[in-house]
Each structure stands twice: as C-alpha cells, then as structure tokens.
Amino acid sequence: MNDKSGFTLLEVLLAISVVAILSGLSIPVFRIMLTKNDLDIATTTVAQTLRRAQLLSQAVDGDTSWGLQVQSGSIVLFKGTSFISRDSNFDETFDMATTIGVSGTTEYVFSKFTGLPQATGTINLSTENDSRSVSINEKGTIGF
C-alpha cells in the first residue's frame, strides 16, 4: 500500500487563480471605500472645526475673532480677523487627503461675543466619484 498525501499541481494552480481573481475584484472596491472614508472624515473635520472657531469667538478667547481656512490638503483653525492677518502662533492645522478637491467659500471668520459668521456660504469637498458640502447660514448654523 502506497499512501501518498499532498496536493497536485492542478489543485495548487486552481487555488492560486481563485485567490488572484478575488484579490483583483476587491482592490477597486477597497479604493472606492477608502476615498469615501477620506471624504467623510474631511467633511466631519471641517464641520467640527467651524464649530470650534465659532465657540472660541463666542468665548472671546484671546480677545479676538477666530476663523477657518480650508485649503487643498489642510484645514486651518486660526486666530484673527482674516487668514492673511492671523496670528500664526495659534494655528491648528488638520491634514486632509490630497485627493479631495475644495471649492466654494473657503474662509470663514466668526464675530466676537455673538459667534455670527462674517460670511455665509458652502464649502464643497469632492473626489472623483463623490462630493459633500458643509454650509453655514447667517445665524451661524452649520449643516452637512
């Protein structure tokens, strides 16, 4: 009696081809989910940073206004009446995926005490397949 155990070459090739096919099908789905997740994180970070700037302005932290500037690749919480004239020592920068495009109103500053925005509008964040927007109205309500 010859008791031989093991796998034949055909079985090994079949197993490798099944793994390769499953990997090939899952990589595009993974990329789509990854970019969607990046977009969701960026949208949430923009909304939370807007709320933080509004709160710091209402609390009159540093006896000045606070604002937000959204740029390609970053979100900046700043102290001052505008991004250009800000005190960069107090900047809080949050990274954003570089695959996300930014359009619309990208700078918001909130008034001291009231926390009302000096401008209203929408920040549009988009990728190749999807887009999100964060809006702020004249009362300072932030929606996304």
Tags for this model:
alpha+beta, 1 helix, single chain, minor pseudopilin epsh fold, four-stranded antiparallel sheet, elongated, 144 residues, 35% helix
Short description:
The protein has 144 residues and is α+β, with helices and mostly antiparallel strands. The chain is built from one helix and eight strands. The strands form two sheets. The chain has a four-stranded antiparallel β-sheet, with helices on one face.
> How many individual domains?
1
> What would you say the CATH architecture is?
3-Layer(bab) Sandwich
- The share of residues in helices is 25-40%
- Under CATH, the topology can be stated as minor pseudopilin epsh fold
Number of strands: 8
Structural class: alpha+beta
Strand order of the largest sheet: 3-2-1-5
Shape: elongated
Largest sheet: 4 strands, antiparallel
- How far the N terminus sits from the C terminus, by CA atoms, comes to 73 Å
- Low-confidence stretches at least 5 residues in length (pLDDT < 50)? none
Oligomerization state: single chain
Mean pLDDT: 91
Q: For the record, what CATH class applies?
A: Alpha Beta
Range of strand content: 25-35%
Assign the CATH superfamily. Answer: minor pseudopilin epsh domain
Please report the number of helical segments. Answer: 1
| Rg of Cα set | 24 Å
Order of helices and strands: HEEEEEEEE
